[in-house]
């Protein structure tokens, strides 16, 4: 017998015990579903709490990072100012170095010109010395030429000792005893004329002699002798 897809073997008699067993099995299954839902809810709530904690930590880290970023921006601004000041100082130092290099170039050029000038003077001097070796050594080896003026000076010098010997000695010199041998020596009276005339003229230095002989022919020495005689 088949009726709307049901067979006779599919039908059974419903009793109180079978209904209670079916209700108990359904209730047991519902309890299992409820317990699984509760466990899932607990797990999800714990995970949500962890996510909330992580979000709070992220907020704190974000605020701290923002404050640090602001500090870094301020430090970067200061660093940029320092970089600009260093750049300005480097530019100033570069200009000073350029000025020093220019001055060094001018100094080197001046020293080079001075060395060339000194070398030119030395070459001229050596050429002049090599060109006139006899005139530079001649006055140092030979006496000066005798002129009329030197003859008059020699004649006056030869006459001055005779004039000094004719003058009488002073009484103090006659009355003074001798020092060791008992002999008396007459000392002539020294006057400014006799002192200047008795002093020999100072010989000229080699450099002056060479200069006078090479340029003026010994006239400087004669002028010095005439000046001593006039005194």
UniProtKB/TrEMBL annotation:
Residues 128-148, 162-214 are annotated as: Disordered. Residues 1-104 form the DUF1664 domain. InterPro entries: DUF1664. Residues 129-138 have a biased composition (Polar residues). It holds the Pfam family DUF1664. Residues 172-181 have a biased composition (Low complexity). This is DUF1664 domain-containing protein. It comes from Macleaya cordata (Five-seeded plume-poppy).
